[in-house]
Input
Amino acid sequence: MWSSHARSKNRIGAGQGRTDRSMRDVRPCPGAASRELAGNRPEKEVPVKASLTVPWDSRLLDYDFGHDHPLAPVRVELAMELARCLGVFEPEDVVTVPVPGADDALLRLVHDADYIEAVKRSAHAAHGERARFGLGTEDNPYFPGMHEASSLIVGASVEAARRVWTGQSAHAVNLAGGLHHAMRSHASGFCVYNDPAVAIAWLLAAGARRVAYVDVDVHHGDGVQAAFWDDPRVLTISLHEHPRTLFPGTGLPAEAGGRGAEGHAVNVALPAGTRDEPWLRAFDAVVPPLMAAFVPDVLVTQHGCDTHMRDPLGHLLLTVDGQRAAAERLHRLAHEHAGGRWVALGGGGYEVVDVVPRIWAHLLAEAAERPIPPATPIPGEWLTFVRTRTDRDPVAVMTDGHDPAPRPWSSGYNPGDPVDRAVVATRRAVFPWHGLDPWA
Output
């Protein structure tokens, strides 16, 4: 993932925003929680049903592969503070809640016991043993407290799922989650434990009959697909850059599910250079019909920001506005087909100042049922905070100035358009398994 792409590009995400100054020393917005207080202050009295629940603990920022690694935890910190400065957390029906850790029994819903033990003892393991489990590599270097930080992210995603499934909250968001590449017995692509897969497995164990998972990261959601390859109770949909040009090299339309679960792994492999309108056209042509046919009990989504045109690792050309439109569509689909039950997770994203915070602040506001108008100026307090944390001058508005208007699929298939060809390949591979006409 990193080694295949970052060296040949301007790695504006690598180590970005890291300073010796902790968020504990900064209070960016009037009344905002600091890094320490954000996870440890008493939660508001939870309403009978919150519109949005955000499991939060400052220790989620401890998932940190080091200064030179692209996956900088400051992006989560900046996104949470931007949402706070924009007032997303002010309404009484928006709550932050403590994060319980994930014990071994929870992790074993997806991961092998030997792998969990390898993560725990990785501090003292030889290089060969680490490498056998995908640890100690350039993509997944060891860092102190790896098991604790990784399992806490799983705990946050499962708590988000629990709050939604038990009816305490309509929606829940874990921005630190979305680590979709981790496999049953090895780390991969910056991901140690696969929190989306564990959250989905928890939902199934709790009684969910069908769970839909939609992944809009630029990279294929291979770990989640692998976890439920043979399980017809889970529909995994991944829209990503074509595997011939990007890690992990999987995610072709023909990867459609194992025996008994045919058509339940859905892959839309988009060509490099895809922009907002064709990306949204592909989404509209694939995701809504499948959601309507599958009728999940709950929708889990992964919101990697690395489809953005300024991301240093991917090659798609979406804007903040296109990504905001994707979140709006997923929110609507949760209400149309999943009883409003929506669990949203973070994911990739390596332009950590100008891109990730804006997209995830939009996601939080959308999940809170109070979307932020695109032309909203970014509060000055947050701009000052970012300059203090990163020595960067961030953009000052919540939009990239684009209002995407994709052509509806009903307008007709264009065989000369590579995105349309990608859509047809996906529809032909999976639609018949759901009783859908791929050409309709």
User: Anything to note?
Assistant: The beta strands are 50-55, 94-97, 169-174, 211-215, 234-241, 265-270, 298-302, 342-345. The chain has one domain: 6-399+412-434.
